[in-house]
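Annex B. Sample input.
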Amino acid sequence: MATIIITEKNKAAEAIANAIGTVKIIKKAKYLKVYFIPLKDIYVIPLRGHILEYRNTNAFKSWTNSNPREIITNPNAIEKVPASYAGPYIKTLKEYSKISNHCIIGTDADIEGCNIGLFDALPFVKQINPTIKISQLWLSSLQKNEIINKFNNLIPPKYSWGESGEVRAIIDAFIGFSATREITNTLRPLLNKFRVRFTSIGRVQTSLLYLFYLREQEITNFVPEPYYLIDADLVHTKGIIRSHHHFNPFSKSQEVQAKQIYRKIKNEKIGNIIDNSKNTIKRSPPTPLNTSKALVLLTRILRISASSAMRAMNALYLNKIISYPRTDSDVYKSDFNHEEILKKFTLHSKFKDYTLNLLKDKRMTPTRGKKDMGDHPPITPLESLEFDNLKFENNIQKKVYELLTRHYLALFGESALESKQRLKILIKEEPFVAQLVSLISPGFLEIAPFLKPKYEKEIQITGDEISVKEIIFEQKKTKPRPRYTDTSLLKLMEKNHLGTKSTRPFIIKLLQTRTLIKRIKYNYIITDLGKFLIENLIEIWLPFLKPDFTKRVELKLEQIKESKSQMNNVINEIRNEFLQLFDKFLINKHKLISKIDNYKMEYTNPLTSSNCPFCDKNPMKFINAKNKRFLVCSDENCKQFLSLPKNGKLELLDSICSICNFNIFRVILKKNNKSYTYYLCPKCWSNDHSKFCSNCNEYKISKGKCIKK
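Annex B, continued. Sample output.
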């Protein structure tokens, strides 16, 4: 009889089938091809991710005629049903199960993949053929040699991994369905003002939104404190060296002391060198990349969103260019064949010289990270591709590939050598320090310059004195911690156990899609809706908002994966814990309802998402006065403003002007019962009132975005 192999995606099915033998394609539906290998009687059937999903049963579909609390207490309130597109996939699974005696689960080799293969697809197979043999194909790449090797060494199914994914789906379903419904129904009188029909609540996403809110409150409530710096510019034959007073910064309470020191030394022209030490230090190469580290690196260096980075890595994996991108391991096994990969890069125009030197010096042992989780190797480039290769589908994939490749090659490089020079100087008995770090030998930094810190030229200083060009006294103000970026968000989520390595980018994107946060340039800000939601929940539902609850859930899911806990026990435990939290909300709901009547939306003076173009510190707020409308900087020390058109309805877009990076507004005019729409950037328009977006020579507005013509 035949064998069926079930994969998660079409590209994976195609790669697996072509690696095993000569393929004949059987078209089953518009988007479904089965790959048949006649010589081995194998049918490779691709899915389309999850083909089943949890939904409310018919009795609980109505938001008004059912009790959200019963979604938690009644196990029959949710059910697992086929997705809208699942019909042809289910039919095909059943068809080929009839003629097969062996089913190989070849879905992605992680928790999600195990769940799709063992809990979505396999039940339909066993429904038709209960005694069929089950094995699993555990792939770390879609390279031919990897597929053949793992096909010849199939493993028992990882049921516990699939169970962990199933419990996650069930828990998130009854939490999300019940909480979203209850809170939406409670806040419905105000949601219309935000132009949304419902507000989404989830175990992970709402905890993350809470952390957003805390940071925004910290920034909003921050009171700048003055502090003082005393620096000295020292003269050297190669230029100026900036030195800093040993006790910098001086606090507000030390203002008098700082000014006394400055007055004492401001006219001095000679500094006495009391220490001139120089040390050679090593900068070690980086350690291998697991998913979390790769996402942090890519978002920081390329300034792309976490979801874009994950999407690019997935595409590179499916095109057989890199290894599996969802891995917790940052340690290679001792038998990993690095030499084979390194030899491929000896033909690459950019990496040839560096790689040849590695092989010549027999540097084929990479650095080690902290953990080998046994699932997959760290993320590894598997093919040497020039950057104009047609396998790359877009520029982001090229940049991601180049960065991952350079990072991988850096693992084998020599340490960089740095010279750290430290000067201690007395200027009229006041201690100053200058520190210069210069690069002696680049080592691995030659191939990975993005890991290079800022270096200065090495200088030779002799003698006991050095000339002072100027003493500088500066008053500055403390600043709040910055808003989150993709990079800092990923670190925050990992620290607080929010989501998994592969779901974190999706959760960030979900908050954007639900208009609870916005991404402006490279920073995220909480929207009025997000702020409104957390402000109203924080007083009565803080235990649910804090990450502690989600952290406990994640630990329980890990125990299931490791076969230390049973599915039903964990589901019941979390169900009971969340029910207590839900009841706490119900008990205190009256406090929330009483606030709704008195609620005045801050949106009467909405803030721009871009900072004021004059001070670049704070957003601008909208002012509607008699016969004029304008934007004014929210910083009272700035007070700059931008004019706006007098007539028409104004809408603030998420998009920013590609010329000046300020917000774009949509203006809607009504005349003779017809609506007319145009766009403008207030910054460009204030400079020249003929500068509407429609008159721009370089850019145009398409789907609310400012893009190149």
